[in-house]
Each structure stands twice: as C-alpha cells, then as structure tokens.
Amino acid sequence: MSSPILEIQNLHKRFGKFEVLKGINLTMQQGDVISLIGSSGSGKTTLLRCVNFLEDYEVGLVAVAGEQIGYVEKNGKRTRLSEKKIARQRAMTGMAFQHFNLFPHMTAIRNVMLGLIKTRGMSKDEARSVAEKWLERVGMLDRRDHFPGQLSGGQQQRVAIARAIAMNPQLMLFDEVTSALDPELVNEVLEVILDLAKDGMTMLLVTHEMQFAHDVSNKVIFMHDGKIGEEGPPKQLFKKPKSDRLATFLKNSKF
C-alpha cells in the first residue's frame, strides 16, 4: 500500500486548560473521502485546523504526504518550523470554510487567480487558464467577472471551492461549507463536492448533513468529547451504531 496522504498520531490540542482533542489517530489514503460528524464542541473543526496548522498542537504528529506539519523533531525535541516553511506546507492542503472568505473587491476569477500567481508563481495567463477550468467545473464560469456581492451564498461558496482546488492540493478540507447557506442553496454546493469525490479527490469533511455524509464517504468518524467515538463504513455506522451516544446523535439528527 502507498504511504498515507494524511497521518495523525496521538493528537492533543488544548485551549488554555480545556483539552479539545484527546489523542486522535487517523490515517487517510489517496482517494479517501472521510466525513467527521458529531455534536458542536466535539473537536471536529479544531481537528481540521490542526491538519493545515491554522491551530498548533501540543502533543502528537500530523503528517501530509509523509511530511510532518508545523514541527521538526531534533534530538528528541520538537521545534516549530519557520513561517515560510509552514506557509509552503499549508499549500499542500486546500480548505473551504463555513464563510467564503472571498476578497470583496475582486471578481470571482481574480479571487481564484490570486493564490496561483502569489503562491504557485504562475503567469497571469496561466493562472487565468487554470482558474477558468475550475470555475467551469463548479458551474461558475459564466459568473467569472462578477464580484462576491453580486453572487448568492451558494455561488460564493462554489467560487471558494474552486479557489482552493485550483491550488492542486494533496488533500481538501471542508469545514461545514453549507452551514452559512440558505436551505435552498445547500444542494448546489453538495453536488459539487459529490462530483469531486467521484473524480477521486482526497477529502476530509466536517458536516452536519447526515445523508450527504452517508452518500459521499467511504468512511465516517463520529467524534465525541474530543475523541473518536466510533468509525467505520457509512452503511455500518449509520445503520448499526455500536454505541448509545452515536445512536442518540443520529436520532437527534433525524437520520
């Protein structure tokens, strides 16, 4: 088997005295689609943010494509990498957030082009070509010259997804990307992600859309109180939960 795209070992994360993550272990191979489900405060978003080092962590290891993220081990001591190296590592993952974080003064295509020019060093023509390809893929090419304020929430989120994927990340992270959308706009974004999964993109998702998690994932992880409470294939996890905690969560989620 090839080396994992993502490997997390014994990950612990604190905010002050409060321990948010209490020893997470997770491995993802290329092409895996894993959904993280669980109640608010269970550590799902914090886990994602540790993967691309938007949050540092006190104990454990996070590695993307075999490279430890954020730190290097020397003589048994852990040393934080330089900000330049951390920035390079962050480019190995793409992340789409609850809120779209588009630059309001830039058109859709300029939002997608920016990282390609600044981080990937592409020429404007090359960046435009890549940006157009991904905007077309998410159904937004005809809105390429619109500013975010001229787009619906679902359209803005699709542009944000195109911007992240255009950077050609090893791994895509999705953090509740539909939670800020009106209900009628949710499906258009979920369809984009489902389409990307069919193409073999490696994805780690935090979602409260249980049916979507069931349909898109080859593995689902139920997080509870900073730990992995249960994990397995979606049919097993959703149809035959082993724990009362998961059974109650699914019942309350109306799955």
Mean pLDDT: 93
Radius of gyration: 18 Å
Q: Count of helical segments? A: 9
The helical percent reads 25-40%
Main β-sheet description: 6 strands, mixed
Note the overall shape.
Answer: globular
Secondary structure: number of strands: 12
Tell me the fraction of residues in β-strands, as a range: 25-35%
| Distance separating the two termini | 34 Å
What is the succession of H and E elements? EEEHEEEEHEHHHEHEHEEHH
Strand order of the largest sheet: 8-9-10-3-11-12
Unreliable residue runs: none
Question: Which terms would index this structure?
Answer:
globular
How are the secondary structure elements laid out?
Layout: E1 6-15, E2 18-28, E3 33-37, H1 44-51, E4 59-64, E5 67-68, E6 71-74, E7 77-80, H2 83-90, E8 93-96, H3 108-118, H4 124-137, H5 153-166, E9 171-175, H6 183-198, E10 203-206, H7 210-216, E11 219-224, E12 227-232, H8 234-239, H9 244-252
Parallel strand pairs: 3-10, 3-11, 8-9, 9-10
Antiparallel strand pairs: 1-2, 1-4, 4-5, 6-7, 11-12
Helix pairs in contact: 3-4, 3-5, 4-5, 5-6
Structure report:
36% of the residues lie in helices and 26% in strands. With 255 residues, it is of the alpha/beta class. The chain has a 6-stranded mixed beta sheet, sandwiched between helices. Strand 4 (59-64) and strand 5 (67-68) form a beta hairpin. Helix 3 packs parallel to helix 5 (153-166) and helix 4 crosses helix 5. The longest helix has 16 residues, at 183-198. It is globular and about 50 Å long. The two termini are 34 Å apart. The model has no long low-confidence stretch (mean pLDDT 93).
